[in-house]
Design goal:
Number of helices: 8
CATH architecture of the largest domain: 2-Layer Sandwich
Shape: elongated
Low-confidence stretches: 267-277
Structural class: alpha+beta
Largest sheet: 6 strands, antiparallel
Order of helices and strands: HHEEHEEEHEHHEEHH
Oligomer: single chain
Mean pLDDT: 76
Strand order of the largest sheet: 5-4-3-8-7-6
Helix content: 40-55%
Radius of gyration: 36 Å
CATH superfamily of the largest domain: GAF domain
Strand content: 15-25%
Distance between the termini: 64 Å
Number of domains: 2
CATH class of the largest domain: Alpha Beta
Length: 277
């Protein structure tokens, strides 16, 4: 208990040493100007008791001691500020290096997905996207298409139980290839068919840029055999591709795909209003 109080007292002295030094200097100035240090009194049978000296010398000692504390404390603060600045620069360098690595990894992953596009003989109406699960949300980590317009990023993340992707994640895979033409009847038939599978507001569906008619969502496990991501393959055409053919061709590229997914620790992509249904 005594040790704790002593420690707190020392901390208090260092914390307020500059203020105490200033007060001591003010007291010294007042004493010097008023000649208070020459003040003497007689009482209790004592004569010429130097009361002024009892004020003057403690003020001098206090100013010196706390002045030293202030200088020492100021030096420590300066050292800490320089140390923090140096550490801040190192952290910034590490963050820059990490961002560069993530960017390179992302570019390499998208190049790999582009090769998958070619391997599947997909054209300008197809697209492949990969979503990894982070903090109970889907986060897009890669996308490729022969059509630059279809490569644009939609929402970078959304709930794990939303849309066809959420259904594929829950069930392991999901395939549909007979969605109606989204341009017929103002999109009403397309909207109705989609809502037979998963509930979605019409306004939200209308804002989706790529209204695909064929979807294949495939859940991917990591090295620990736990679900980690979903592969979303889609086409704007009805019966745009054959599910068995896709699974057969995926068999030869699954291990590299798992490797990319495991290495990716989260990439923030620029969002738009596309939900990547």
């Amino acid at each position: 208990m005594i040790r704790k109080q002593l420690h707190q007292s020392i901390d208090w002295i260092f914390k307020y040493s500059l203020q105490i030094t200033s007060i001591s200097l003010v007291v010294l100035s007042i004493v010097d100007i008023s000649n208070l240090n020459e003040w003497k009194e007689s009482f209790w049978g004592l004569t010429d008791v130097p009361i002024g000296k009892f004020i003057y010398y403690p003020a001098v000692i206090s100013a010196i001691l706390f002045g030293i504390f202030s200088i020492s404390n100021s030096s420590n603060i300066k050292d800490l500020e320089e140390d923090n600045k140096d550490k801040g620069n190192k952290i910034q360098d590490l963050e820059n290096a990490l961002n560069d690595s993530i960017k390179e990894m992302n570019e390499l992953f998208n190049s790999y997905l582009t090769l998958m596009i070619k391997n599947l003989n997909f054209g300008h109406t197809e697209r492949i996207s990969v979503y990894k699960v982070y903090e109970n949300k889907f986060v897009m980590i890669g996308r490729a298409s022969d059509n630059p317009n279809l490569q644009q990023i939609g929402r970078s993340s959304y709930p794990i139980d939303e849309g066809f992707i959420g259904k594929g994640w829950a069930e392991g895979e999901y395939f549909i290839n007979d969605l109606p033409d989204p341009n017929l009847r103002n999109g009403d038939t397309y909207y109705k068919k989609v809502n037979e599978v998963c509930t979605i507001e019409k306004e939200v569906l209308n804002n989706i840029k790529m209204k695909s008619r064929t979807f294949f969502i495939y859940r991917i496990k990591g090295y620990d055999n736990l679900p980690k991501a979903v592969l979303v393959i889609e086409s704007e055409n009805e019966k745009g591709f054959d599910k068995a053919d896709v699974i057969n061709k995926l068999a030869g590229v699954k291990q590299p795909l798992v490797m990319f997914i495991e290495k990716n620790n989260g990439v923030t992509l620029q969002p738009t209003n596309d939900l990547g249904l």
